[in-house]
Description:
Blueprint: E1 2-8, H1 14-24, E2 30-36, H2 38-47, H3 52-61, E3 65-67, E4 85-91, H4 93-100, H5 107-117, E5 121-126, H6 133-145, E6 148-149, H7 163-177
Parallel strand pairs: 1-2, 1-4, 2-3, 4-5, 5-6
Helix pairs in contact: 1-7, 4-6
Amino acid sequence: MKRVLVAMTGASGSMYGMRLVQRLVTQQDVAVHLVLSDWAKEVMDSECTVHSKAWLADLQQRGVTVHAHNDLAASPSSGSFRLHAMVIIPCSMGTLGAIAAGLASNLIERAASVCLKERRRLILVARESPLSSIHLQQMLTLSNAGAMIMPPVPAFYTHPSTIEDIVDTTIDRILDAIDLDDGNAKRWRDT
């Protein structure tokens, strides 16, 4: 069983995290763990038609393990808890900066720190524009430490016709990066 931790922060783009979880829970041999910051819930409630509490309750019924953002004793905070990958989606610049600085004041930061020290897959779907020099330096620091920085950039060669199609181009890239292709990706010259 491959464990994947999906973390959502307060950056805009809740639908990216929601769609990644939706696609992961359909895969056999994948155990999904989820943690949302308080601001992630606020942003989700303002951006999406589904309320965060209802969404989380539904996911728990589907077998997703939901961890509290402030629970530093949760299993993903330990290197002995084997994760296949961690994806922070969307990843705010505040979270990215805290991880780059080596901070671990909440479960998202701590789990990311564990992924880096254990050399496990860590993907940060950074959501900000424009980027300052500070953001770019922090991204370089994390990339040099082993993280993958993957801003949500759509691929228009897929001829998207819905917002979900646009979101899926990023999710397809993430699933490829963590070796969990679900067979739904539209690929260059395959479309």
